[in-house]
Amino acid sequence: MGENRRGSPGPTTGPVAEAGMPSTEPAVRTTNLWKIYPQEPRPVEAVRGVGLAVESAEFVAMAGPSGSGKTTVLNLLGGLTAPTEGSVRIGGQEITALTDRELARVRLNRIGFVFQSYNLLPMLTARENAEFTLVLQGVPARERRERVRKLFGEIGLEGMEDRFPLKLSGGQQQRVAVARAVLGEPDLVLADEPTANLDSTTAESLLDVMEQLNRTRGTTFVFSTHDPRVMERAGRLVRLVDGRIEGESTPSGT
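The structure corresponding to this sequence follows.
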């Protein structure tokens, strides 16, 4: 595989829709994506030639056994790690040659993240955590508050705006994390094992919320998961084995 060139000079964008015009590009597309980690006695090929396209408003789950590469693929899609070879395009924008500063801007404006450990800031209230991305985007305070109020009402967090994370249940904290990911209106939301720390009832409730956001707001979700409940609800299930896509199916029938 060739040398990673993320920080090298070169074009930083692909064909992106004109301002005010809808993009015809997938929410995310990868081409011949490889991630190789140097290791003795031989390098580890964590991701091997993955080609994947996720259309806007899809609800996609990537599943596979431990070590299959699903989390690594998710990190590559989010620009959290650089590929050894291949490309990632977010809404038509090539991100694999961007500088760290340009990547940070893409992650802020075009990608939402949901992690299994919630990653809320304990010193901020639920509302402040949810609107954190909006603050960084420069959205005015009144608009931030209104967007949080509306979304909290949609996802069952109404009245909890001023609670701190330690005063919320695990399921409520994860809903705040989902709200934070969605409020910035990204091209896609990447969810890494979002139900892993939740009991069955709470996990089902969280998935109800994410499906609702997918339907009503057209939010594009890509999961990495080993949870059968997530796999059953996926509009498309992508199975990875040994860093390669082994096959796809449509378990939810959508």
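The chain has a mean pLDDT of 90.
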